[in-house]
Amino acid sequence: MNIVFMGTPDFAVPCLKKLIESGHNVCCVFTQPDKPVGRKQILTPPPVKELAIKYDIPVFQPEKIKGSNALEIIESFNPDINIVVAYGKILPKEILDSAKFGSINVHASLLPKYRGAAPIQWAVLNGEEKTGVSIMQMDEGLDTGDILYVEETQIGENETSAELFDRLSEIGAETLIKTLTMLENGELSPKKQPDADTFYASMIDKSMCEIDWNDSADHIHNKVRGLQTWPVASTTVNNKKLKIHKTVISGKTSDKAGKVVDNNGVLTVCCGDGKCLDILELQLDGKKRMDTKSFLQGNKIEIGSVLGDEL
Fold it and tell me: What is the 3 state secondary structure string of 29-75?
């Protein structure tokens, strides 16, 4: 198939790579403009652009789709289909309809649940036991188009959103190729999304980071998993900010929420529901991420200390 590919971050790279390897003709790539990255603000191309350049695929990076010549560019390639994977821009109807088979989207959730910008993080934050990839025929709504194909996967009880992100990007690539084959063979039956059971997965931001130890152990554990690798769940200890990277749910307690009850290689902390969390990886603000055993060799946190008490 002749394909116009639209995508930007790491999540979209396996889809583009799989399309190229499977023999489809990726005519061109649309991606976000290069952006300054890091403390030195070095102008950096998106991951999708880097892969496209490697395979000599023409790349277009309009600041805005509306008012640009994007439609003319797309039509000049006479595509069979437009494939959109985390592009980050809203496409007008004339572009959605500009290819023979229209435009399809690879979305990392079991639609209609988790429409929006951060479906992977919110699935973990909400303690979902399963998620997946939905291939959707795009319409003008926000992730509301007809479903073409769905692939489910279980979420591990200690799996972070970063780990799930990597898994779903690979699942998405495999699922995309299956969908295209079925589409070419006339084997797909699009299904309308139900209006019930929707959840809007809004952008993640730093205001979500602070841990309230009065919450349940499950809720806090899900927060730690869901906010990896950015912006990272955090608390305070000895009046210093402490980022929490990895936890597991452990025993039960009747002690005060936030109280440290063990510091022998791990930090075991009481939660509001009478369960404990073992902190396995952590990071003082401005310092390196470390496993807790190494951290405790250079940083003293006494049994009886109460995390977050200074807030």
Answer: EECCCCEEECCCCEEECCHHHHHHHHCCCCEECCCCCCCCCHHHHHH
